[in-house]
Design goal:
The protein is of the alpha/beta class. Helices cover 19% and strands 32% of the residues. It is built from 2 helices and 8 strands; from the N terminus they run βαββββαβββ.
Length: 118
């Protein structure tokens, strides 16, 4: 049964262009055509829709797994994609933890994303 709603995640960011570069180049998000709405840019990240809203004044203070309440994005990818994401995140300085079957990366504002190999 299909749920009676659609869902998306809005990511508050300090610099929309910098965040867009990370989400497209590192994670492979695709800009949805004609999807700028109220200052947000909308992307497709697998089955998930995300929007980047440049309304944050400060980045996240978390530089490790959080000990406070925080949203954590979790992605499930093919092993080859994990290797690509690992290398791209490392090149942008966003690789936080590196394990054989998963990595934890930081977006430009310090938000954490777990990426697991299927």
């Amino acid at each position: 049964m299909r749920p009676p709603f659609d869902a998306a995640i809005t990511i508050s960011c300090t610099d929309r262009t910098r965040s867009a570069k990370f989400y497209t180049e590192v994670l492979g998000a695709v800009l949805e055509p004609d999807q700028e709405l109220i200052g947000c840019w909308w992307y497709r990240l697998g089955p998930l829709r995300i929007s980047l809203l440049p309304n944050a004044r400060l980045p996240s203070p978390v530089d490790r797994f959080p000990d406070q309440a925080e949203f954590l994005l979790w992605l499930d990818v093919e092993r080859d994609d994990l290797a690509r994401i690992r290398a791209a995140a490392d090149a942008q300085g966003g690789l936080l933890q590196d394990h054989d079957s998963m990595v934890v990366v930081r977006d430009p504002d310090g938000l954490l994303i777990e990426v697991w190999a299927r």
